[in-house]
Amino acid sequence: MLFLRIEPSSAVPIYRQIMEQIRDQIISGQLTIGQQMPSVRQLAEELAVNQNTVLKVYGELCREGLLKMERGSGTFIADVSSARRADECEQIVARILGQAVEKARNMNIGIETMEELLRKEYQKRTGEPR
Amino acid sequence: MNEYVIQIEGLHVRYGKYEALGGVDLNVPKGSIFGFIGRNGAGKTTTIKTLLGLLTPRAGSCRVLGLDVQKQPLEVRKRVGYMAEDQQMYGWMTVDEIIRWVGSFYPPWDSTFVSHLREVLQLDLKQRVKNLSKGQNSKLALLLALGHRPQLVILDDPTLGLDPIARKEFLRYVISLLQNEGVTVFFSSHLLYEIEPVADYIAILDKGRIIKADKTIDLRESVRKLIIEPNNTCDWRQIQGLLDVAVDDGTRHASITVEDCTPEKKVNIQTMGKLIREVPLNLDEIFEAYVIGNRGERKPL
Amino acid sequence: MSPTKALFWKEWRQMQWRWIFSLAMCCTIVFVGLKTRVLPDQMIILFSFGISAFLIPLFIAMGLVAEEREQDSLRMQLKLPVAAWKVYVVKMAIGTLAVAIPAVVCSIIALLMAGNRERTSADIIRIYGFVIPFEIIFMLWTVVFSLKRKTQWAAALTGVVILAVWVFLIICDDVFLLEIWHIHWDLSLIITPFGFLEAGSDKGPWLETSVAQGILAAVLFWWGMRRFAMLTRSDK
Lengths: 130, 301, 236
Prior knowledge:
The complex is a heterotrimer.
Chain A: H1 14-27, H2 40-47, H3 51-63, E1 67-70, E2 74-77, H4 82-106, H5 111-126
Chain B: E1 4-15, E2 18-29, E3 33-38, H1 44-51, E4 59-64, E5 67-68, H2 73-79, E6 80-83, H3 95-103, H4 111-120, H5 134-146, E7 152-156, H6 164-178, E8 184-189, H7 192-198, E9 201-206, E10 209-215, H8 216-222, E11 224-230, E12 242-247, E13 254-258, H9 263-270, E14 273-279, H10 283-292
Parallel strand pairs in B: 3-8, 3-9, 6-7, 7-8
Antiparallel strand pairs in B: 1-2, 1-4, 4-5, 9-10, 11-13, 11-14, 12-13
Chain C: H1 3-36, H2 41-71, H3 74-78, H4 84-114, H5 121-145, H6 152-171, H7 173-176, E1 177-180, E2 183-186, H8 187-191, H9 194-201, H10 206-229
Antiparallel strand pairs in C: 1-2
Helix pairs in contact in C: 1-2, 1-4, 2-4, 2-5, 2-6, 4-5, 4-10, 5-6, 5-9, 5-10, 9-10
């Protein structure tokens, strides 16, 4: 069970919701290398989505090198190097930071204030200054 | 020709003086799950009834599985599985009786499959139809539609009146039982959030006409909403593919929803004003834009 | 089961309670009446015959189409791969059986109990015998004219109106008496099936009535078949 969640009325298309959640799980290590993914049919049934959507997700993730499809046996988590993982994680965080920067600019909050806020938030959550 | 299981061309249907369908064109590819959406009264049930030969059109043609519906309505009905909207069945019959009874009208009835499916759907043979819950009723109707292993299944608002759990369960059956077998599913509903996860294609029917038909994914990606600060009063109708425009009185910002939004179109729109931001849309909003969008003919609110 | 057999089975099962109820009611009256002899045989027989002729056809007609429209189950039948006219013909056939059976059983009981008692057996057979065509025609007219009705009671009311119109025609004697070829014709007995009932009590114009009613019934039956096929065109 992958425990994926689809938000039906979301502005994010369904295939992208699935793709991002799977990608997150692979990157963060929740899904281990070599672990077998549910078949297209199984996942489609589990999530109650069209099989072609799942096929598209698996296809895209294969193209990104996160999954590999082996004919006859199924789909497996690809050998993702830790460097690659770190890279992906940074990209995800960068994207979220990008959204924060956009918002800050719209509200005329400058870079110094932003750095302050970043430090405060980090401390709140980890207790470590960086 | 055989890549499409349903081909509708120029369909006009009338009830007395009232024109229910005013020129419907539709092609449903084989093996797809095709979502047919529209408001209540848009003409979905009328279209479906015409596809089954239950209504005679004033003009236009319908071909189902290669057969002309007007010429061979009974043949079409023999090969198509049909689940009608809010199906009332014979309450006095037991589940067993109604399965046998319906089965006698379809020569290629697969009793083994039906028996297995009945167990999967957990329907009790001895129970009287009138004592079935709504969920069980829907399952029975689905079973009766699939018993003769049709290549095309037409579902008219099949989840009407079902609770959310039963609805999801129903959609699961559609995917596991039908998509797996390569059966084409033509599925009408007015619940967009339900159709989107399962449909390969979506067609929007409004006031008796198809106003958009496309792959679900393409429809989602190609319709975009841009918020701009207009330079001066603009003639919104100049925008190609405009679906909806709204102007905020306070900020004077305009929200423009366009279909088939290419990068060129975006650039074009930006000549009318500065782009503030782009808003992602869900299918409900896309549907609204198509059906009740202000195309610039009314003063934008 | 073949499709035709399936159609018959369903109509039969659906009408079962109605004709059994009619049968029970009619037979009880005949049996109890003739046994206790509270009234002259003639009255008992006429009373049961009245119920047969006027009430049972209405009761049966209500259940053939109008009940299904009321419960919206007709849609289910018409969307099956079977021609609408076949459904109609089977319904009419079962309807005919359903009105005839009570009359036949009643007549047997009456014959056994009161044959050649106050009335001759031949008379009794003739009374009941002519009630059957009347019933069938009355049922047919009610069904065909109530095809568009959406409730059972509206259908029953249609039947009552038809009966009232017929009775009215009978009462307006003067208008309908004709003399052709030196024979007195009472038209009202020919254009309404009351001619059958008259034939039951004395030598009425049963031959002319049969011919006229036969033609009318055929036309009505055919017209009803056309209208029935259109019932899929609801205003949804």
